[in-house]
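Box 3.1 A note on notation
Throughout this textbook, protein chains are presented in two layers. The first layer is the amino acid sequence; the second is a token string describing backbone geometry. Keep the layers aligned when reading.
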Amino acid sequence: MLKQELLNIIKAGEGLTVEFKESKNALNKDIYQTICAFLNRNGGNLILGVKDNGKITGIAPDVISRIKREIVSTVNNPQKINPPVYFSIQEAVFNNKKILVIYVPESSQVHRCNGKIYDRNEDGDFDITNQSDAVATLYIRKQSSFSENKIYPYLRITDFRNDLLEFTRKTIKIRNAEHPWLLMNNEELLKSAGLYQKDYTTGKKGFTLAIESYDLLMKFIAKHLPDPFFLEENMRVSLRDKIFREVVSNILIHREYLNPYPAKLIIEEEKVITENANKTHFLGVIDPNNFSPFPKNPKIARFFREIGRADELGSGVRNIFKYTPFYSKGGKPELIEGDIFKIIIPLIAKIGPKKTVEKTVEKTVEKTVEKTVEKIIGAMREKPKITIKELVAVVGLSRRGIEWNIEKLKKEGKIKRIGPAKGGYWKVIKAKENKGRN
């Protein structure tokens, strides 16, 4: 979110989709009630570090990290927010005062906070747990708004492919060996994922949707598209996977499944085009610097995140815009919101001679490497006994990336290890001294 856009939201004041919490040194006790109410109504922006009257007071710098960790941990705890949710937290600075912005999307499910159901109106958050009419209305609204809630009463657990559910468990185990889904049977797993529901208008119970297309589409991409060499923080990454993982996830996660329009993925000579039925929230081209991510199928999105096929809300769009210029030698993607959602990934940039673009990409990579080396050498100068673990934190690189750079610097004669691995220290060799060695 742009700073000016955020400032305009703050100036407009609290309302149905905006709530301020001062949270200068600790979280307000009712913050999770607001998150629950936003999930159950239309979503909204929860802004920490701002008083009710819109005055920006900021959050104490020494508690920012703790507050972020606490929020992320709590909203993923089913004992607090049930079903658990996923969202990102952004930092913003106004007049040297830091605030936190939490964009809470509207959910397709009904959520509880501490066992209670909260809804939202202009005056704040309200406990409707014991108001049977209000709760029934809430369930009905969710079922009519999200196609992923359509129940298929004649679908039985025996109709699901057991090999796909076993593959799901194996995929989850790689990421989290203690994930609760690993101990559940197939029916319990699908119910826990929110893929089994009750229709409060008819009383019918049943399974909703199941998906198996992700791997097939990624294999199709791998077969027909190149994967050029690319370094990020001195580690090779697959540009093709970074981009098309998000494209394929978008086709499956955000599709409007009640629309008969077929999803399309077309590979042409100069571009890849996808088309997907969509429940639009605005019309036009998406600007990565000024957009609010909105989950069209939140339960399916959550399932994809659990098995490692998707990241937090909004990260996919950012990754597509970040990596496409490198993949297509300078070309820019287009994401067009409409009744049919379109993604266009150029394979060849239309911005001038190829050599010029290649040089630009090479210079960008070279600058990244130079900055990393400078950070490592600077940290060693400041603290000769610095450990690999400490370098990971200071430089912001993986352990493997740090070790790779250290070996390279040793071979180039720019650094030297004095003494043993434990108890020794790093010596940064000056240019003249290095030249003398050669």
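Residues 351-358 have pLDDT under 50 and may be disordered. The CA atoms of residues 56 and 375 lie 34 Å apart.
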